[in-house]
Design a protein that fits this description.
The strands form four sheets. The chain has a three-stranded antiparallel β-sheet. The chain contains 13 helices and ten strands. It is globular.
């Protein structure tokens, strides 16, 4: 797990599954397992470039249902492929896989066979059909072909997803994070002059409140409840933990909602992990006072200060001995 980068490619179709997780009856545990499988399949993903013929070749050879080829793909993993460094809780991996074994998913789709005829299929299967455990070392699963293809197909668009979102976010915040990443860049023709937030050039949306409520299956309709019980709680969590968060506002008549996404400074889980901060904080000659160190750390966390802001504040503290004990 530690060998992966901090982000991985999430196909838009998978993001939709995450957003609709409540409607689909899948929990955080199931999402986490699917996310980790997607993460481990990132080097197999195809279709990101236009005119990529790999996907067609894959469909012809792998994603065929009019022959006797297996309906699943066997994949072997270590537990460390599914857990952050230092996390030894293999039970959460097993519980997530067992959930996906019990989650039956039915899809209907058309495929063009080699003879050029279009055939319609109805495919009902658990996401994972087999689960073999190598005691205390790893496991092997059989992932059905539909889900394997969904996790490697980037042709319908994809976004860079924080790995730690799978582990650090609550259920609603994880769903909303996936929703934020899928928001489009607002073009000049979609300026939305009546929007309570300037959306032009931003990653955002301006939509009917009823559509937003339906998307997240909210049990309340008043803006005050949506703010207090849903949006504000999610925003607080994303501001603190993730690389993307958002601002929002309701229209004057409360019938529409504007949402604009923005990138935060939370690229590292440890607040002082960047090289410039580490160098500054390790300068024991100038920062020999633990009070200054504590104060700087507190201000960075509280006000989400950039490296430049932090260094300017440190200079003020050092020069004028102005700090809080």
């Amino acid at each position: 797990f530690s060998n992966f980068s901090k982000n991985f490619n999430v196909p838009n179709d998978f993001a939709d599954i995450i957003i609709k997780a409540h409607q689909n009856g899948i929990s955080n545990k199931g999402i986490r397992i699917l996310g980790c499988i997607c993460l481990n399949l990132n080097n197999r993903q195809i279709g990101a470039k236009k005119n990529d013929t790999q996907l067609q070749l894959f469909d012809d050879e792998w994603f065929s249902f009019d022959n006797d080829s297996p309906l699943g793909v066997d994949l072997s993993f270590k537990y460390s492929d599914f857990l952050p460094k230092g996390n030894k809780n293999t039970n959460q991996v097993k519980e997530g896989i067992l959930e996906l074994q019990s989650w039956l998913y039915t899809i209907t789709f058309n495929r063009v066979s080699k003879d050029g005829k279009t055939k319609e299929f109805s495919y009902r299967s658990p996401v994972i059909s087999s689960f073999l455990i190598f005691m205390n070392s790893g496991f092997r699963i059989t992932l059905n072909k539909y889900w394997y293809r969904l996790l490697i197909d980037l042709s319908k668009g994809f976004n860079s997803f924080s790995i730690m979102a799978l582990f650090d976010l609550s259920f609603n915040s994880l769903r909303f994070y996936a929703y934020l990443l899928k928001l489009p860049q607002i073009a000049a023709k979609d300026r939305y002059s009546d929007s309570p937030i300037n959306l032009y050039g931003e990653k955002g949306t301006y939509q009917n409140k009823a559509t937003f409520i339906e998307t997240f299956e909210l049990p309340y309709t008043s803006p005050s409840h949506i703010r207090e019980k849903f949006l504000d709680r999610i925003k607080k969590e994303l501001d603190l933990k993730m690389d993307w968060s958002f601002n929002y506002a309701f229209s004057k008549d409360d019938k529409k909602i504007a949402i604009v996404a923005y990138q935060t400074n939370n690229y590292d889980k440890e607040i002082m992990q960047s090289p410039s901060r580490s160098k500054l904080m390790s300068n024991t000659t100038k920062l020999e006072s633990n009070s200054i160190r504590r104060s700087l750390t507190d201000k960075v966390k509280r006000y989400n200060l950039s490296d430049i802001n932090m260094m300017m504040l440190a200079e003020v503290y050092i020069k004028y001995s102005y700090y809080y004990t």
